[in-house]
Design brief:
This protein is α/β, with parallel strands linked by helices. Helices cover 33% and strands 21% of the residues. It has one domain: Thiolase/Chalcone synthase (Peroxisomal Thiolase, Chain A, domain 1, 3-Layer(aba) Sandwich), CATH 3.40.47.
Length: 234
């Protein structure tokens, strides 16, 4: 029997908007943003035990760190490379660094498959909980704007980080699988957005969760699709 899955809390962080320097300069910027945002959503959800499965999604990953590492290697040779930069160049570094910071012993996943990484990561966490593989999950979606990321994307990349706490206990927003969309009535078409851009997707979901303060105990519904997401009150 499939479990119902709810988003209990969400949080966001942007170094550019908040103008707060990171305390640990040994970590890459994506790892720093993940740690800051998970800290915030843990406080918002009043999570005492942070040892929960972690799902990190990013379209481009730590491209700035990888580019810096490879640039020195190609231009000056392997002996000139700073070995301390290598951990930051690994794709799953943000998930591992966040796990170490919060002493997470549960599985940690990194999804990086292009512009749909945001919706794919949230959907993967949903499926794990819905099928009773895990009881709750922390989903962290992050992007870094860098020179190499701009070249790949063809434009500037929206930078920031969002975290969502998912579990089976009833919360503000319930996640529904794709097939359920066709059964919904009076879907708010004005709220439909393309889910291709990670930060645009995260911003919409974060606002959807944060703005919902019902007095009658009702919840909202988040329906995941490949092309868009549908939002409605249920």
């Amino acid at each position: 029997m499939k479990q119902r899955v709810y988003i209990q809390a969400s949080a966001s962080y942007s170094e550019i908007q908040e103008k707060r320097p990171f305390s640990n300069r040994d970590l890459d910027r994506i790892s720093q943003m993940c740690i800051q945002t998970v800290e915030r959503v843990s406080a918002a959800a009043q999570i005492q035990d942070r040892n929960v499965p972690l799902f990190v999604g990013t379209a481009y990953g730590c491209l700035a760190s990888l580019y810096e590492f490879n640039h020195v290697y190609e231009s000056e040779g392997a002996l000139r490379v700073n070995p301390s930069l290598f951990p930051n160049a690994v794709l799953n570094a943000p998930a591992c660094r966040t796990g170490i910071s919060f002493q997470i012993q549960e599985p940690m996943y990194t999804i990086s498959n292009g512009r749909s990484s945001g919706i794919d990561t949230l959907e993967l966490a949903y499926l794990y909980i819905a099928h009773n593989e895990i009881r709750e999950a922390m989903v962290c979606l992050v992007e870094e704007d860098s020179q190499i990321a701009r070249k790949i994307a063809g434009h500037s990349v929206s930078e920031g980080c969002f975290a969502f706490h998912l579990q089976t206990e009833k919360g503000k927003v319930e996640i529904k699988e794709t097939s359920y969309v066709f059964e919904l009535q009076e879907i708010q078409r004005d709220s439909d957005q393309q889910a291709a851009d990670t930060m645009a997707f995260c911003t919409l979901v974060h606002e959807f969760v944060s703005d919902w303060e019902p007095k009658d105990g009702s919840s909202r519904c988040l329906c995941l699709e490949r092309k868009r997401i549908a939002l409605e009150r249920v």
